[in-house]
Design goal:
The structure is a homodimer of 380-residue chains. By secondary structure, chain A is α+β, with helices and mostly antiparallel strands. Helix content of chain A is 39%, strand content 24%. Chain A has twelve helices and 16 strands. In chain A, strand 6 and strand 7 form a beta hairpin. The longest helix of chain A has 21 residues. The model of chain A has no long low-confidence stretch (mean pLDDT 90).
């Protein structure tokens, strides 16, 4: 599925402004997706504003009210009077089902332009986009066909990757390759367009394999797969089990791994050994901490080894570092992180020095780096 | 600091579209903040587009290039050639310092309108907004003075809170109260405007105490303080220490607590006891799991008690539940979570039934609920 994006508008909660923006957007595109403003409170103006823009009444939908009522009953709660407004829809619109929240969306038409409204709550919005909007977009497509794909990379910076790709990323090229970055991971968006789907798909596929060749192991996935999902898949494939001892990351890697449904197939458990006492309880010899410090290659190595043995996993990960803002020294600055990896009888430790001084960033990149170490070792 | 928002635009990476949008925005407002497009790759078009819009050249800034070079050297890396473009700025613009990334921003003028450009990377954008843009906005303010504040609530739904606040949330009222919601927490935005700052601040303060009176313990903080930060502050104030045993939340609460700098003052460590074996290692009697199931009041209670004893903390939290999508039964459906709380010699367990079927949502609301239980108990 591909479509050209005309742009986006963020509109303050003011009915006149929403109506004006809908008018402007109608001139630019064939489909307007409105997110948010479908809640039960007085600042939720999407229903009224769209109805006013279309010059139609708001109609009450009894069966939707019953569904909302049932939603509250399942939680053992009574529906607040305010929620009644969520059963109002612009006349002539089609109701879009919301299986995980109280606010359904709707789909209206203004001449040739479609207006879809979905809640702003991210989980609801994403689900409804996938299940309700995408199938309807596919019916609207005309003219050149766009196909796109994502390649997710970890282990190099944005500029390094761009340098490696060279002319592939040049503007105006077809396929076009764009680049966005998150917590140390880089997402390449490859977009091809052609007269028909087959041709566009061929161009896309050719570019994808070019990028794979250039970037090699830096690419960890295509599409929407996250790094924890990729690692989880590898662990399952190889019938491995994993346990973690996290210090500076404080549970982030465990949380990332357990975000994936079915993680219990390979994830046994973790220790968050934040204090030195907690590390000693994990069996890190006190003398090792005295001699080398809690943030050291030696401690990371023993953390990985001991946690694997403790949980009976064949892979153990130990992470110890200085996330800041305090605690850094000349010799061991903020951003220094050691990651130990025990796989069966082999123990390796990677020393990382993250230059950012941002605590959240250091923690999350350290967590991603640990997962990436596991990935690279299992991919061999 | 308060300012009225004219709206927002998301623009595809197309120079002509950026220029057209800048033109439209100039007609609507006194300040345009452009985020993103300052990276080193060819799809980063903000510098060029703003220069073209202002009809000025891009100027090379040698001292900024030296700073970017030094940034890479600190990481023990060589700057990629691509990064040179980040030392280019529209002629006549002021450079905005970026202490945590490679891309500096800039501040330009187009007649009476200011155009500020900052990177899109969230941590960099937020820091630069606070340190570089907010002080400059304060110099731009004219006419009515707006002051605003946030009240953060947890423990009731959006519609319940709106019902309780009644007329306070009515549209057109001054102060105006808006409402946004995240992972079960509700943020109320109170915005007052008046001829001068003193008057506006008085109106705001009056409304804030009205809301506090109506909502009581549902309000956990004002401003930008997160629930984990509030809980951390309480733990520190009361000289408490805490340890966690997390099952279905898989490390989220530990991660939230350790996100706060200085958490080592009160956080000792956690177990992520994902498997039954891991629970048994924590000292949960196997018979208890056989009799009542791993997801039970009894197991949550013993998890809290044992983890506190194990780490020598006076507060222990035990969380066990079914986050889904699999694993639910008629009797124990997806969304059922038990949270045990041991404070000194007192043990309580709360049974929660989250109606959402979304795994991420259940996990994160369960984590917030656990933190909120600690907050409510310590606030008494």
């Amino acid at each position: 599925m591909g479509i050209e994006t005309a742009g986006g508008w963020t509109v303050p909660d003011d009915q006149e402004r929403i109506i004006r923006t809908l008018g402007q957007a109608c001139e630019l595109c064939d489909l307007i997706i409105v997110t948010g403003g479908l809640g039960p409170t007085d600042d939720d103006l999407t229903r009224q504003a769209v109805a006013a823009f279309l010059d139609v009444e708001l109609e009450f939908n009894k069966s939707i009210l019953d569904i909302i009522n049932a939603f509250f009953q399942r939680r053992g709660k009574t529906m607040a009077e305010k929620n009644r407004s969520q059963a109002l829809f612009p006349a002539g619109s089609e109701v879009l089902d919301n299986p995980i929240g109280t606010a359904p969306g709707f789909w209206s038409r203004h001449g040739d332009v479609s207006i879809a409204a979905v809640p702003g709550v991210p989980a609801e919005m994403k689900l409804m986009f996938r299940n309700q909007i995408v199938p309807r977009i596919q019916l609207l497509e005309k003219g050149d066909v766009f196909v796109s794909a994502k390649l997710r990379c970890f282990g190099a910076g944005e500029s390094d990757i761009a340098q490696k790709l060279g002319g592939l990323m040049i503007r105006g090229r077809n396929p076009l390759i764009n680049c966005t970055c998150g917590s140390g991971d880089i997402v390449l968006h490859v977009i091809a367009h052609a007269k028909n789907k087959t041709e566009a798909a061929e161009m896309l596929e050719k570019d994808m394999s070019l990028v794979h060749n250039v970037l090699g192991g830096l690419v960890y996935a295509e599409g929407e797969q996250s790094l924890p999902a990729v690692v989880g898949k590898l662990l399952k494939q190889h019938h491995h089990t994993i346990a973690l001892a996290e210090s500076c990351t404080g549970g982030i890697v465990s949380q990332m791994i357990t975000d994936i449904p079915g993680a219990s197939d390979y994830f046994l458990g973790s220790w968050v050994t934040y204090s030195n006492d907690a590390k000693i309880q994990l069996g890190i010899p006190e003398q090792l901490i005295i001699d080398h410090g809690a943030v050291s290659e030696q401690v990371a190595s023993v953390m990985a080894e001991n946690v694997a043995r403790h949980f009976g996993a064949n892979i153990g990960v130990g992470i110890t570092g200085i996330a800041g803002p305090g605690g850094g020294t000349e010799e061991k600055p903020v951003g220094l992180v050691y990651i130990g990896l025990q796989i069966d009888d082999t123990n390796t430790v990677e020393k990382c020095l993250f230059s950012s001084k941002n605590r959240q960033w250091i923690r999350s990149v350290a967590a991603m780096t640990a997962l990436n170490m596991v990935r690279l070792r299992l991919n061999i």
